[in-house]
Amino acid sequence: MATIGKALVIGAGIGGLTTAAGLLRQGIEAEVFEARPSPGRLLSGGGFMLWHNAFLSLRRIGLDQAVAADSVRMRFHEFRSDTGKRLARWKLDGPTEKCEAPACALRRSSLHKVLTEAVGDHRIRLGARMTGYTQDADGVTAHFADGSTARGDVLIGADGLRSTVRATMRRGFEPPPRYAGYTAWQAITRLPGESLVPTGTFFNLWGKGGLRFLYCRLNENEVYWDAITSDRAAARIDTVQHTRGAALAAAYDQWPDPVGRIIASTEEEAILPVAIHDRPPGGGWSQGRVVLIGDAAHPMTLNLSQGAGQAIESGVVLADMLGRGERAAVPETLRRFEAARRERSADMVSTSWRIGTLGLVHSALLSRLRDLMMYAFFDSVAKGQSYGLMLDGRLERAPLPVAAGRSGLGAG
Fold first, then answer.
1. How many CA atoms within 13 Å lie on the side-chain side of 98?
2. Most CB atoms closer than 10 Å: which of 73, 83, 194, 242?
3. Which pLDDT tens digit goes with each residue over 320-365?
């Protein structure tokens, strides 16, 4: 059997590096090409949640302990209104013990560091902007802006929401990403104090006027937060006359403590506004020896905290399937990968989109009705549905790579 010798991975984000780490574990040489020119740019970004399913996937490539060691284990997910009323509180210890994998909060840069070390700096080529590819029966060639080329048995497009690989696959025609109607203002701030923001709880606040606010502690000194503003709410946030921090402080001035103090403690340059997009499910991910993963294939909104988790899942599954495939059968392997991942990712995209529409409510009456619905159903029905989607058994049933061992939870 002629096994796959080399894979070209376009994009050194979470999906691309996870795939490369998985391929190397399978004995397949992987070279990663990243358009950004410096490692510092790759390690930038805020914080986020990695749920149990992401750690189950990381375990399959031997990286769960390393990621957990630089994370904070979440024990509760608490939903509140903008008056401070608790709407629901999910206890996460039970699911953590059941699936033997934690839910954690961490810096994006921490995950990137673990993945980069697993792949090796010498396999990551920075400042390599891909302009297109060509393929034939024996392999695929990537073309770069500096005139260089690279050849491999398979090309994996992990280059994000506005993927060059995706655009090339679709011959230059692709509808734009779908805008969700809101912006996430993301930041990490220095804010010690367990009484103010206790370790181990992810707070998820829903308000009227198209406003939401998320926050959790990353370590004893730092807090990650997300202010989510609908377009109607953002229209009143004046960052021309005021700083971002001052404008957000005014928008959230009636919200309960510690929202105001979190915003006030944050340095201006740390606040990054991100317009939220996804793509509706549909369209192919593979063409011959070329395949898409992560945001290039199935970008989703932030409402399930599954964007990174699904990129990790896809990367691990793809590496596993390629590791068990033949070089001549790469196109068929990629089609089977797409078939295996399509339904699950589509469910994530659609569910995350629907949750996001709840935050677009502006009137006090509709916000009150939404809060009553959350109070009545989120501790039971919504939690069950969320975990049913997250831990649907597919990861547990998937075969482990031959070289993979099983590790424990790690310390948060």
1. 10
2. 73
3. 999 999 999 999 999 999 999 999 999 999 999 999 999 999 999 9
